[in-house]
Protein: DMT family transporter
Organism: Vogesella margarita
Amino acid sequence: MTTPRDWLWLLLLAAMWGASFLFMRVAVPVLGPFPLIALRLGVATLALLPLLGWLPGGFALWRQHWRAIAVVGVFLSALPFCLIAWATLTLPAGVASVLNATTPLMTALWAMPLAGEAMTRQRAAGLALGLAGVLVLTLGRGAAFGLDSALPVLAMLAATACYGWSGHMAKRWLPGLPPLVTATGSLASGAILLLPLALWTWPSQMPTATVWGAVLLLALACTAFAYVIFYRLIEKLGAIRASSVTYLVPVFGVLWGALWLGEAVSAAMLAGGVLILAGVLLLGWQRRG
């Protein structure tokens, strides 16, 4: 059962993850996807390691489950974060956050092969609505539909597919593990994986203070603190209900983009977002039925 406290945590998480698109939009054109995400994961890991040291048996639990934690970390942080960072090179923060709302849809779709659930008519209708929303959003960006405009959208969908799969795997492989252990271990695994790519693509010019500020906020607020909350919600509510935070992320993503970056809120964004959320709700309602 979702309590009022759970909803407050979901709201705070949505606000922070909505802001992550703003910070990526500011930093990724300067740093590039691999350096930005390596910094995001590395700084977040450094922030969490002292807390893990204070947790009785924290490092021992990490060593015991390091393989599962590493796999979940790659697909819940390193890979999707890089895909999203690359997409935000061209996608506005608000558009990226709306596409991120397909995460619960992907989570529910993964429940079919992972939990043996069937593709019913209602599920098919939910999927169709979600895909229609993505199409409306893509065509409504004002650019001709082609490979250049489709690839960032496909990258966002690949990222949410990673989120959906890894949410189920975290619940299956790491039941009862303290959220701090899972968060720290998964972020550290992703940072280590990305380090060679980050060094290889490191920018030649020193970033500005604004960019470094965006990196720190992205790492500390939107990653370290947010992931502890998210893993705790997965453990308490399950993958699908925890992923419902993305119902609210587009609201904050569009809001922060409009307030801080001057991004326009178009009719296509609103229509696409409504269709995506309608599809997600239809698919999720069938699952709970």
In short: The CA atoms of residues 100 and 160 lie 6 Å apart. DSSP finds 13 helices and no strands in the chain.
